[in-house]
Amino acid sequence: MTDEKETKKAPSPVWKTILITGIVLVIIFGGYFGLAWILRKADNNSSTSTPSPTNSSQVATKQKSGSFDKNLVGTWTSDCLVPDSNSPWSEKHQMVIKDDGSAVHTRWSNDSTSHDCVPNWELGTATTNYQLTTPQTDQVNILYSGQTIYDIYKISGTNLEFGHGFQAHYPAGYDATQGQSESNRFHDLNTYIVYHKQ
After folding, report:
1. Hey, which of 27, 148, 180, 192 has its CA 20 to 30 A from 17?
2. Which residue has the higher pLDDT, 122 or 195?
């Protein structure tokens, strides 16, 4: 009579790898989309205190609330960014800004090992309409979907940087509460996503 009990097989290394990769992707996407959700819920009420402007290569005078810095006008595109070479994730950003402060932000994402920022899944391209105002030198308020990101910016020649956006080695040093109100405006530039004027 044969023994009907089957011996348990150890999980395949391939399944372990798939499981670990899946967990890592859930953490990355959870952090990224969690931050986007937090920023959408940002406080629209401005406080009376105005933080000092960040350093900039531009020389400009303070601007009234609701005004717009025409130096931002143009098409600005980032390189294809790979925050972790051991992860399949890559993304590229573009900001098309008009002289009335209206803007369209596009993000192209890829989660394959090609690291080429060519969208390879349904949500791989995300487009958001913005309305920008520059209350004073180096500060920009980004209104979208009824919410405001209280941000900073810097133009250096043909390069543009903001404070918001994902960074390499997330979440090291990243304060997810930044940008939710005037009193908690972004205070550091995101030097990872650098837009280049086209």
Report:
1. 192
2. 195
Question: In Å, what is the CA distance from 10 to each residue of 20, 23, 195?
Answer: 16, 20, 49
pLDDT in tens, 37-96: 454 444 333 333 333 343 333 333 333 345 899 999 999 999 999 988 888 999 999 999
Tokens of 122: 């349904």
Can you list the alpha helix ranges (DSSP code H) found in 12-171?
Answer: 13-40
Domains by residue range for the chain, with CATH: 13-44+61-197 (2.40.128.50)
Residue type, 2: T
Q: What does the pLDDT look like over 97-147, one tens digit per residue? A: 999 999 999 999 999 888 999 998 888 999 999 999 999 999 999 999 999
Per-residue burial over 78-110, b if 16 or more Cβ lie within 10 Å, else e, is bebbbeeeeebbbbbbbbbbeeebebebebbbb
Cis peptide leading into residue 171 (ω within 30°):
yes
Q: Which of 119, 60, 94 is nearest to 197 (CA)?
A: 94
Cβ atoms of residues 94 and 69 within 8 Å: no
Distance, CA of 55 to CA of 71 (rounded, Å): 16
What is the C-alpha separation between 197 and 160, in angstroms, rounded?
8
pTM equals: 0.65
Q: How far apart are CA 196 and CA 48, in angstroms?
A: 34
